[in-house]
Design goal:
Largest sheet: 3 strands, antiparallel
Radius of gyration: 16 Å
Order of helices and strands: EEEEEEEEHH
Distance between the termini: 15 Å
Number of helices: 2
Strand order of the largest sheet: 1-2-3
Number of domains: 1
Shape: globular
Number of strands: 8
Length: 135
């Protein structure tokens, strides 16, 4: 996942044989839902000026052996936005890593050139403080 105040993108990278691509073949942007779904201000379903929750899931076959895609749910004060992708051919190799108790890494960094939605900050985007909890 990549996000800033203007956009939210999911992009799983399965890294087959330990080799990761710099881009994902399964990128889904929240803007694909509607233009007022996610952004900075009260006119958006998810207002990035307020805190919101993110739940990420890997969707699998009923026997849990084959991955079908991802589902990311954003919630805020009763509002829900769901970002789903079906990229079973691309992420199929990730199933083995998930069964092997793959670790989770979370990071936050200066957003000098992050362009998730087509909006860029001038200089550093340091006007927010991420809070990560309930991992």
């Amino acid at each position: 996942m990549r996000a800033n105040a203007f956009g939210f993108t999911t992009a799983p990278k399965p890294c087959p044989n330990g080799k990761c691509s710099t881009t994902s073949e399964c990128t889904t942007k929240v803007i694909d839902q509607a233009s007022n779904t996610y952004g900075s201000g009260a006119g958006y379903t998810i207002n990035t000026k307020l805190s919101f929750s993110v739940k990420s899931e890997f969707i699998s076959s009923s026997d849990k052996l084959k991955l079908r895609g991802t589902k990311t749910t954003l919630t805020q004060e009763g509002s829900i936005v769901v970002i789903e992708s079906d990229c079973r051919d691309y992420i199929s190799t990730l199933a083995a890593q998930l069964r092997g108790q793959m670790g989770l890494a979370v990071s936050s960094f200066a957003q000098d050139d992050i362009d998730v939605q087509g909006n860029k900050c001038t200089g550093k985007c340091d006007n927010g403080t991420p809070i990560i909890f309930n991992v």
